[in-house]
């Protein structure tokens, strides 16, 4: 549906394109005014939209992304906010399980450290026992110096 001002602009531009000016040709200016008035009256009088194929095609033509974003600005803002909240939730959930895995790793490392300490003390005890069986005692004293044992 073509409104009055668009029709006026198009008509004036069409007259300008062929070189006719309203100020120089008064009879054309009167005809132009009548034409604009009748076109505006018929356009304004019909309240129901016409069922032409061009109107149906324009109605089906999809809007671009940016035009849709401007048209439904509130919905897009809500969509991006909810997406941000979802991403933050997924991130915090990942961090939660990461902390849980790190705590399990720490517990496993502490157990391994304790088992290594026990093995080292068993090896020291065994070596010191073997060294104490030697009659001279030089080997036992040397091991005590190495292990930092004062007994």
SSE string, helices as H and strands as E: HHHHHH
Number of helices: 6
Spatial gap, N to C terminus:
107 Å
Principal-axes shape call: rod-shaped
Strand share of the residues?
under 5%
Instruction: Report the biggest beta sheet as strand number plus sense, adding barrel if it closes.
Output: none
Mean pLDDT: 74
Indicate how many domains the architecture comprises: 2
Helix content estimate: over 70%
How many E strands?
0
Report the structural category: mainly alpha
Give the radius of gyration.
47 Å
Unreliably modeled segments: 1-28
List keywords for this structure.
about 150 residues, mainly alpha
What does this structure look like?
This protein is 79% helix and 0% strand. With 151 residues, it is mainly alpha-helical. The chain folds into two domains: 61 residues, no CATH class; 87 residues. Helix 1 runs antiparallel to helix 2 and helix 5 packs antiparallel against helix 6. The longest helix is centred in the C-terminal third of the chain and has 60 residues.
């Amino acid at each position: 549906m073509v409104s009055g001002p668009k029709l006026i602009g198009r008509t004036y531009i069409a007259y300008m394109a062929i070189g006719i000016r309203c100020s120089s040709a008064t009879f054309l200016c009167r005809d132009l005014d009548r034409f604009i008035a009748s076109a505006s009256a018929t356009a304004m009088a019909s309240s129901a939209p016409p069922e032409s194929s061009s109107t149906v095609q324009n109605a089906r033509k999809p809007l671009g992304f940016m035009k849709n974003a401007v048209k439904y600005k509130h919905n897009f803002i809500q969509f991006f906010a909810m997406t941000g909240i979802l991403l933050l939730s997924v991130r915090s959930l990942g961090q939660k399980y990461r902390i849980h895995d790190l705590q399990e790793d720490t517990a496993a490392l502490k157990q391994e450290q304790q088992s290594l300490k026990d093995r080292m003390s068993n090896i020291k005890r065994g070596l010191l026992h073997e060294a104490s069986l030697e009659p001279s005692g030089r080997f036992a004293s040397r091991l005590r110096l190495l292990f930092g044992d004062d007994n």
